[in-house]
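Researcher: Here's a chain I'd like modeled. Treat it as a single chain, no partners, no ligands.
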Amino acid sequence: MLSFTEINRRALLKIGALSLFGSSAIASSKTATIPSKSCIFLHLQGGPSHHDLWDPKPLAVPEIRGAFQAIQTAVPEIQFGELLAGSAKVADHLCVVRSMTHRFTNHIAGTYITLTGSTNQQDRDREAHGDDFPGPGAVLNALQTERSDVPRAVSLPNWLSIPGPSNRMPGQYGGFLGSVHDPFLVEGDPGAKDYRPLSLTMPEGVSSDRLKSRLNLSRQLEVKAKLLEEELDQQFNHLQRSAYDLVVDGKIRKALDLSQEKETLRDRYGRNRFGQSLLLARRLVEAGVQFIGFNEFNQKWDTHGGLEGRYKQIVPEMDQAFSALVEDLAERGMLENTLVVNTGEFGRTPTINGNAGRDHWPNVYSTVLAGGGIRGGQIVGASDSKGAEVLDNPISPADLLATVWHQLGIDPHTELRDRLNRPLQLSEGSVLRELIGEQS
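Model: Modeled as a single isolated chain. Structure tokens:
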């Protein structure tokens, strides 16, 4: 449990929440005002199979079609894989992009291009570093021009990590904008009975009034330190206020209290890490958080062997949670202003391998969107009859991200500045007007 005495300079710098409550954006005058819409971004890291989920090939031979049948959805011309029964019921809210494509076969490189749109990388494993292009949450933090009493961007229930000294997978963090713009991590399994995010827990025996008194004393003690460490203190003061607001003022603390939800609704999402994380994401949107990134556990969807049995385990909980989120947002009148993105970093090979699995395949794959002004009940783009290549309308991760920025009210051409003050465009992609029913 985090005690207030532990909220010192070093601990607060690790919290990384400076930008949550306002900071000078590293951007040009093109920066948009804070948008009114929010985004919940689901990253199914590992590479889900488009053949077995969103782009079934019922007429293909068994070694391409796979073990699962295609089922009809609420939209007559759209079919999904049989494990997506919940998503099939809400297909009128969904836009399925079946022509996503890029050239990176490595999980780390695929994740990086999915979260940033950047192709300036090698197709190999690597750790995050300070010259990376920033992820969406960090960009929103950096572009923020007004103070907010809640984080602008949250990641949950964990960071995506890789083996190595830092375990930091690129694409999630502030990159060249600086770690101070990293999203706020709400860590832990929301499906666990003892779920209490440590960084947001009031110290035992410490009331809000007592914590306020300690904060005032701490501020007095900081005066002399400011004279010696002006730049560090500027960050520290923001971080101190950030942690204080989150712990004491309570909007986020209340949002994290899933016991406030009806038991029937919690059951509807699924009593597991995935389901309760998405319910938590909806509550964070209601609390005013702009961007929530849900990180599926590292390479959980990497199925080089035994795909059929593995998918019978992992797809139903994803389908239940995702369809419940879309339905819940719609029922609450929140879907129009909440963009939900459900994607992996690539798809799987068109032919089942000798281990009854599918291998990495970025040539064509599917991404699903709902809400946020996206027109539901439609398929955009197409793969060929084998699900091997793009047949119509190739769409890159940069195009998808440009569309996300557009829907959030941010100009994709916004200019960011790296650590050497070099101008870099937020997105090199094109807004997908067909997703929102607009003409190009």
